[in-house]
Amino acid sequence: MAWILDGVAGLHAALVESGYTVIGPTVRDRAIVLAELGSADDLPYGWGVTLEPGGYRIRRRADSAAFAHSAGPQSWKPFLHPPRVKLWDARRTDDGFEIREEREEPPRYAFLGVRPCDLRAIGILDRVLTGDRYRDDSYAARRDGIFIIVVNCTEPGETCFCVSMGTGPGADSGYDLALTEFAGEGRFLVDVGSDAGADMLARIEHRAADPVTETRARAEVDAAAGRMGREMPADGLRELMAGSLEAARWDDVARRCLTCGNCTMVCPTCYCTTVEDVTDLTGDHAERWQRWDSCFDLDFSHLPGGSVRTSTKSRYRQWLTHKLGTWHDQFGSSGCVGCGRCIVWCPVGIDLTEEVAALRQEREDSDE
Amino acid sequence: MTAMTPVPYRVTERREETRDTATLVLRPCGEPIPPVRPGQFTMMYAYGVGEAPISVSRTGAVMEQTVRDVGAVSRALAGSGPGRMIGVRGPYGVGWGVEDAVGRDLVFAGGGIGLAPLRPAILYALRRRASYGAITVLIGARTPADLIYRAEFDGWRERGARVEVTVDRAGDGWRGNVGLITSLVSLACADPPNATAFICGPEVMMRFTAEALEARGLTDVRISLERNMRCGVGWCGHCQLGPRLVCRDGPVVAYRDVAPELLVKER
């Protein structure tokens, strides 16, 4: 059963009334970023984006669609797995030290406008940080109880390839509510994905969707699947990575890669962190912070005898083969959701779909 | 308490092993960490300096950890005298599995500080001497002055282990073997197919020792890997080696499984 909403102002108000901090897309500094939405008016009505390797521009659309844009510079990662998290405080005592854990009550977030690719990315972070023997309680505290409103994608970008990764353009589970926007009409088709979603919908004005409207919404999402800007066939990708460790292509990409780590910062699933210990000048007070780290950093693989991965080639290879290959071994899925952010935000425009195609070609050539 | 919070321990004794290596005897200030199996490690914390992954060098009622000064954290830890409080998280990783090798010949090969994680496995087997076949301990170090646990070797021999020691460079008064640890491999055990080997040391030493043992017919060869670690619990991503997270899937691994990865440069 699907429903119709005339705009999302009522939904936003109901979320705020229910105590949620609503996070969603909004225009800031000529980009569509994710930030707290004071009202539904903060949504990027009438804005789209133009994407290319190493390039991002917002552009005016002919209509007033709120969600007709693909991935921006952020994912939802900073809200769930912040760039810096204080883990604990320590105080010097007469006979040693005393540790006090940081217990901060995280905000109760509602995420408004989660793309299906990004929804999958949240699922991947869940698996990495809470799916093994040790659970990251700080992540879990932020993650638990988040109200997720997916917006199915009808406007894929030039660097999108969710279809190849099997993550979009429509979502079928893992959300509380899923919207499909009729661009420029101010109307949304709504699917309910949880009891919490049903309760929320019951608080706002909505009506049953007629079959024609519902069919049209589904068709728009289906059509988006045919307009992906990129493709990266998932078939044999894991084996390709495992079998390409000595490929010549790594030397080629290493001549372009700056090892800046932008790709790992914008990636919605790159989760690596390091810890930093700081003390005040007296030494009576110490803190430990966790912060994002990148496998492109030279110190990332540091050992007493030197770093394991010193060359650019080895660090790019580590990132790509982990993301597309060994992630399966470690966490049971690919680490890539096809959002294309790493392509857009690479300052030299390295496009992983191109790198993979070149590795595949090299493999085929060597098999002949 | 979260997995990232150190548990306070106090150093009750500090034994200087070499000019840069010390063994700390540790007692919990309150609740101890869960029991440690030989081959596991902890994240050791020096107040205000930081944390490092350090193997446990004696398990059981008295916990010991042997630390070599190779950086700011390990210098602070190795220099911690009796009475000093340090933090410990763990134990992490899979152990040697010496408990499961009952009835087999055991070969231990330790290079330098690599003998530290082997020591609890050696002591475990010697405490249950009758449960195992021949026990051989091969030890290599750069110089005689770099040998750790040197005072204990005779005790191990008395309890039924064959202990063979070699150094790369001898000094005055050294009457033992000189050469790489691989030169001792021919002395290890009489029944290779029924033997299990445990190796820890620099990666290149482990590779050559494992290959030499395999050439002698051993098929069960285990090594303990070293990688950068920032959490120990599978979250930080630093300790990757191909399909493995070394903190979670190691540090002890079957040499056969990991050999191809070790051959790829900068993997």
What labels would you give this structure?
heterodimer; A: 368 residues; alpha+beta; 2 domains; eight-stranded mixed beta sheet; four-stranded antiparallel beta sheet; 33% helix; globular; B: 267 residues; alpha/beta; Elongation Factor Tu (Ef-tu), domain 3; Rossmann fold; 6 helices; 15 strands; 33% strand
The secondary-structure class of chain B comes to alpha/beta
How many separate structural domains of chain A?
2
Percentage beta strand of chain B:
25-35%
Mean pLDDT of chain B: 96
Describe the global form of chain B: globular
The greatest inter-chain interface is formed by: A-B, 50 and 43 residues
| Structural class by SSE content of chain A | alpha+beta
- The quaternary structure here is heterodimer
Order of helices and strands of chain B: EEEEEHEEHEHEEEHEEEHEH
Per the CATH scheme, the topology name of the largest domain in chain B is Rossmann fold
DSSP helix fraction of chain A: 25-40%
Q: What's the overall geometry of chain A?
A: globular
Q: What's the structural domain tally of chain B?
A: 2
Indicate the proportion of strand residues of chain A. Answer: 15-25%
What's the gyration radius of chain A in Å? Answer: 22 Å
Summed up, the helix count of chain A is 13
